[in-house]
Amino acid sequence: MKLAYINALPEKDQFQEFIQTYTEECITFGAQAIVNWNDFQSDHVISVYDENKLVGIGCMAGECHVHVRPTYEHREIESMMNKLLQAESKVSLVQAQS
Known about the structure:
Blueprint: E1 3-6, H1 12-29, E2 45-50, E3 53-61, E4 63-68, H2 77-97
């Protein structure tokens, strides 16, 4: 299945559903789920969807913060989001200096 990488915050209900599902999966898989979700108010946010279902979110708030549902970790979403966020951050820096 194709993933869609969108350069925007998800809708509020999608975000809340993601937080719930992400937390449940982290508990099930024994992963740490300590996240400051307020970091995602940044201007640099990437949301990842699988058939309109939010499966990952990342932002650049001083540093990269990326969270992918554990059931999707094998799809290299985290590394792609890190690359996209770093590239977006560099473009913003260049534009700010212009």
